Amino acid sequence: MSPRPRDYVILAVMPLFFVSNLIIGRPAVDTVPPWTLAALRWSFACLILLPFAWPGLREHGRALAAQWRLILWLGFLGMWICGGIVYVALQFTTATHGTLIYTASPVLVVLIAAVLARRPLPLAEALGVILGIAGVFTIVLEGAPLSILHRPFNAGDLLFIVAAISWAIYSIQLKSRALQDFPTLLVFLAIALAGAVLLLPCMLAELALIGGFPTSAKAWTSIAGIVVFASVLSFSSYQYGVKRVGPALTSIFLYLLPCYGIVLAAVFLGEAIHAYHGIGLLLVMAGVGLATGLPGLLKSFVRQRANRSG
User: Fold this and answer.
1) Are 161 and 97 in contact (CB under 8 A)?
2) What does each of the 310 residues of the chain score in pLDDT, given as a tens digit?
3) Distance of alpha carbon 282 from alpha carbon 297, whole angstroms
4) Exposure string over 244-267, b if 16+ CB within 10 A, otherwise e
5) Nearest to 81 by CA among 105, 48, 107
6) Gap between the Cα atoms of 195 and 173, Å rounded
7) The pTM is what?
8) Which distant-in-sequence residues (6+ apart) come within 8 Å of 138 by Cβ?
9) Domain ranges of the chain
10) Of 37, 77, 278, 289, which is the most exposed, with the fewest CB atoms less than 10 Å away?
11) Is residue 167 within 8 Å of residue 105, measured between CB atoms?
12) Euclidean distance between CA atoms 119 and 240, whole angstroms
């Protein structure tokens, strides 16, 4: 399928949808408790996705239900940890830190996949993992590596590291053969529903203990933004890209995520950008590029375009 200009526009804005979760979520957790925010996010996302996934649900629902353990596990990793835990983390750290730490997820995917497969990492991938982890610690330690000897870690940064690891495991498990025969949208709906179910008891406990169910227009506007942009449009645009131009090129556009995140956090949240953010970003992006074989992907893409032109 030959890419059209519109495809590249959609791919260019896709990272904006993903990073909007942290940009909108950072002020949202000041008015909506984190577990309530996460539960409402995925509950409403399920309602939006249901009509589109309904044909697949009618055809494959029974077979997909047999994979309930895997779906529940993915819901825990992708929606419970990368939903509720992320919003808890945003109460203690900045969206800038969260964005940059999350950017290291592809590096962790490479590392965890190698550990699970019990295979040694090639030199380039190993160097990429080292650079990516060094970048994360540069951000967490705010450019002062020796402070690890005496300063306490920021709880929010540590929770984002947990979320990044969880997202890496989620990405690996999502490729399980048991799910490959089902429509992608149906699988996403099932995982989102599992996540919403897991988040519901946390929301009820949170509301019983501290209250805070959203009632203001501002709170519901934040929830709507997270549901539409960070949940539905982010996934839909990613899947559109995979279908139109393939997973390799689509993944390359995700490299824009930290750039968007830093700029948006500065513009909309007034977060300061420091030199250590730039150093950490360079280390993480270099690590991700090496670990995921970015130079090879770019060469392959250029070669394909040249062949089509010829």
Assistant:
1) no
2) 556 778 888 888 988 998 999 999 999 999 999 999 999 999 999 999 999 999 999 999 999 999 999 999 999 999 999 999 999 999 999 898 888 888 788 788 888 888 888 888 888 888 888 888 888 888 888 777 766 666 677 899 999 999 999 988 988 888 888 988 898 889 999 999 999 999 999 999 999 999 989 999 999 999 999 999 998 898 888 878 877 776 656 767 777 888 888 889 999 999 888 888 889 888 888 887 787 676 666 666 666 666 666 5
3) 19
4) bbbebbbbbbbbbbbebbbebbee
5) 105
6) 15
7) 0.84
8) 145, 276, 279, 280, 283
9) 5-309
10) 278
11) yes
12) 33
Question: Which residue's structure tokens are 């940009």?
Answer: 23
The label of the residue with tokens 């995982």 reads: 191
Structure tokens at 206: 């949170």
What is the torsion angle, in degrees rounded to the nearest 10, for the CA atoms of residue 118, residue 120, residue 125 and residue 131?
90
Evaluate whether 192 touches 46 at the Cβ level (below 8 Å): yes
CA separation for the pair 13, 101 (Å, rounded): 21
Which residues lie closer than 8 Å to 212 by C-beta, 6 or more apart?
32, 33, 36, 206
Q: What count of residues does the chain have?
A: 310
